[in-house]
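Risk register update: the risk of archive-format incompatibility is retired. Evidence:
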Amino acid sequence: MKSHTHYLWFNTKNRQEIIDITDEVAKQVQASAVREGFVLVSAMHISASVFVNDHESGLWDDILKWLESTIAPWDPKRYRHNETGEDNAAAHLRSLTIGHEVIVPITAGKLDFGPWQRVFYGEWDGQRRKRVIIKVLGE
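Archived output:
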């Protein structure tokens, strides 16, 4: 079995951002020469996410509003975790809700997606250096 590992590094301008990383994932699949297999894409931080969804700005706004209004409002006084001197408990809860990794099938050397699917990095506590691992496995 072949394997290929690549790290993407991010230093976001905003505390929260959604970044389409599909093209970079596809580039790494191509570099791996894997024709049939899987690619794991995983955030290596507990305040970030990787997810599959549609590349549509209205949806991104909806996701950010949903996280802020329903899942984990950014209110540092609200969370026990923040009693440790941190202020990012909401980011941890957002990551837990969205998830930190995805596995995408590779067929005939390409990402095997549905019509609108793309891979995204969700940053919930940014403005500092973070990374994502892309691990391609297969034949």
